[in-house]
Amino acid sequence: MQSLLGELIESIVQMPGRFVSIATSDPLSALLILIGGALIGVSVAVMGYLTLGAAVDLITPDVGSRGQPRADR
Question: Among 14, 26, 32, 71, which residue's beta carbon has the most beta carbons within 10 A?
């Protein structure tokens, strides 16, 4: 188990260097890495925003949804 955890941490530490070496090898590779990072970043931000909104909606009381009683009843 320790070996697996050590290998995981080591690969996480080495990953930025590998990305840099791939991005500097070709301009198209750099562009694809940037676009991929932007897509992941935007999707994580949207999901975080929606999750935060759901959590806030769960906590706050729902006072404005009753409205005025109808006069035609």
Answer: 32
